[in-house]
Amino acid sequence: MSINATLIGQMITFALLVWFTMKYIWPPLFDSLEERRKKIADGLAAAERGQEEILLAEKKAKGVLKQAKEQSTEIVGLAQKRANEIVEESKDTAKKEGERLILAAKAQIEQEIQQAKEGLRQQVADLALSAAEQILGAEIDKAKHQDIISKVSNQLG
Amino acid sequence: MASEVHAAEGATGYIIHHLTPLHVGEGFWTLNLDTLFISAVLGGLFVWFFKTAAEKATSGVPGLVQNFAEMLIEFVDTQVKDSFHGHSKLIAPLALTIFCWVFLWNFMDLFPVDIFPLIGSMMGIEYLRVVPSTDLNATFAMSISVFCLIIFYSIKIKGPWGFAKELMFQPFGPWLLPFNLLLKLVEEIAKPISLALRLFGNLYAGELIFILIALLPWYIQPVLSFPWAIFHILIITLQAFIFMVLTIVYLSMAHEDH
């Protein structure tokens, strides 16, 4: 229980331990702690930034959506206008077509009337001719009296 | 052997045997082999553990070993930052070494008092005192080293003249120079002595009580040694903590320029 040379030995051991701790133990462990602290701080900052970005993106998305809605309304309006135009156009076309058809029909009717008239004329001429034949007997030659017949048929027309 | 000495010399013999170090040499040149050996082993344990942690140190997700080491590092660093406001590469590692080493010394106190002497006696070692902090040499070695650092930093930071002025002219001004000098010298020398004796006293007394409990009949022993051991868990940590904090405080005082 007295102070002796052990003191010196212990001091040497202590000095060695402190030196070793100072040189090889404290710096790497402390650095890793600091580095992690920095990493965490960076991570938190990044998270915050991310949140801000999300807000920004949401705002942007809202804008884009609004624009899209406007555009779509515009497009729908245009389409309706165009549809109306097409309807109008087709109405026009139909009307014209109808008129054309009516005209054609009228022309055809006219033609048919002419044909019928022609036929009737022919038949009346033939009828008159045969009546005259019967009245005049064989005296009258069809070829000989062509002039008169055509005159009569012209009078019928 | 412990039990034989006990039988032969009674309780006093048993106690004296347990508190006698294994030593070689004469007079001042005596070496307490058990103190030297055990504290070196414990120091090695400390260094090995932290070196393992330091080698695997990563700033990513830490493992268990690194976690524990970092917990201690943070704890020590907080203590250092609380009372020391300069920049020093030495002081934090020093504090860590002191805390861990003293704690490990003190921890030897929690082993049953007869275990190591019994193992020692089997190997032919007659005396074995396993708690290095019950050796004045160990505690004084540490506190004197700290004292040397205090003096070194006082002179380094304040300059030789500044340090001398502080010793001579404070706290009562130049007219009471001898009185100042006496007061300051006592104050400075009291630092290592109080450091060493506080630790030694606590652990020596604690160990003595363990030994006394070991002298009682076996059926009483657990009733007493169990609460004492639990109480001692607090004491050993507290003593290591006090030694560390006072070292930091003394060194920060040495760094303060008035």
- Helix and strand succession of chain A? HH
Number of strands of chain B: 2
Helix content of chain A: over 70%
The residue-averaged pLDDT of chain B reads 86
Task: State mean pLDDT of chain A (0 to 100 scale).
Answer: 89
Q: Radius of gyration of chain A in whole Å, from Cα? A: 60 Å
Q: Profile the largest sheet of chain B.
A: 2 strands, antiparallel
Number of helices of chain A: 2
Shape of chain A: rod-shaped
Radius of gyration of chain B: 22 Å
The computed structural class of chain A is mainly alpha
General shape of chain B = globular
Order of SSEs of chain B: HEEHHHHHHH
What share of residues of chain B is helical?
Answer: over 70%
Strand order, biggest sheet of chain B? 1-2
Would you identify the regions of chain B where 5 or more consecutive residues have pLDDT less than 50? Answer: 1-8
Class derived from helix and strand content of chain B:
mainly alpha
Low-confidence stretches of chain A: none
Q: Note the gap between the termini of chain A.
A: 167 Å
**Residue share in β-strands of chain A:** under 5%
Termini gap of chain B: 58 Å
